[in-house]
Predict the 3D structure of the following.
Amino acid sequence: MKAEEFDAIFDAGKGDITPYLDLTRATRPGREVRRVNVDFPVWMIASLDAEAARLGITRQAVIKTWIGERLDRGTG
């Protein structure tokens, strides 16, 4: 299928376009993951674990959420 045909189907809202996509190669730009190691004092880990338990999420999710919020505010 040519790009123009695909665009026309999408723009017209005529049905499902997913059969025309190769989802095995789909990525979200800027969402690549890269592992980092950070050392925290024991008291911070205890506080993070308490907050994670309160929210019902993992420690990693708390850290990512808090850092993401701070970066979204543009202060850091």
